[in-house]
Write a structure and sequence with these properties.
By secondary structure, this protein is α+β, with helices and mostly antiparallel strands. It has one domain: endopeptidase domain like (from Nostoc punctiforme) (endopeptidase fold (from Nostoc punctiforme)), CATH 3.90.1720.10. Helix 1 packs across helix 2. The longest helix has 11 residues.
Length: 148
Amino acid sequence: MDRRLIFGAAREYLGTPFHQQGRVKGVGMDCAGIVLCVGEDLGLRYCDGSPIRRFDYKDYGMFPVLDAMQKEAEKIFVMKPRKQMIPGDILTLRAPFIVHHMAIVSQLKQGIGIIHAHGGVGKIVEHLLDARWAERIAGVFSYSGVDD
């Protein structure tokens, strides 16, 4: 699969309002939601071969416990070294210390970007992966079956 399809599909969600556990384009979405929705939209699968569905992962609250999101990502996506991160990958991020945020890596004219549900601005956004966001990276993953 061409990785541009991944961040291209994620861009279709830009501007969707932030909503905890939301999974509906244009209505409400959170950070895990965009990763799952893009996976379902593109017919992608988890590491175990099962299809990704937008409502699969909803066992979390507004204030996560420890690094549950990181552990879940390690079970269902393909973990890779940070230095191998490329557009179309998935990031887990600390916010600020506990891993409870996700983003899809994109390619902007200015460099590497991320697409995610930004609670601070209340919607799905895309922006450069600047130093402030890069230092929050906890893990880098690929959807299963997507080649580098």
